[in-house]
Amino acid sequence: MYYDLVVIGGGPAGLAAAEEAKKNGAGSVLIIERNEELGGILNQCIHSGFGIHVFGEQLTGPEYAKRFIDRLSGTGIEVKTDTMVIGISPDKTVTAVNSAEGYLEIKAGAIILAMGCRERTRSSIAIPGERPSGIFTAGTAQKYINVEGYMVGKRVLILGSGDIGLIMARRLTLEGAKVLGVVEIMPYSNGLKRNIAQCLEDYGIPLYLSHTVTDIKGENGRLSRVTVSKVNGFEPIPGTEIEFEADTLLLSVGLVPENELSRSAGIEIDSRTNGATVNEEMMTSVPGIFACGNVLHVHDLVDFVTEEAQKAGKAAAEYLRENKDGVSGETIEIRNGANVGYTVPQKIDTGKIGKFAEVFFRVRSVLNNAEISVKAGEEILFSKKREQMLPAEMEKLIIPKKVLDAANGRTITVSAEEAEK
Question: What is the pLDDT of residues 11-37, one digit of tens each?
Answer without folding.
Answer: 999 999 999 999 999 999 999 999 999
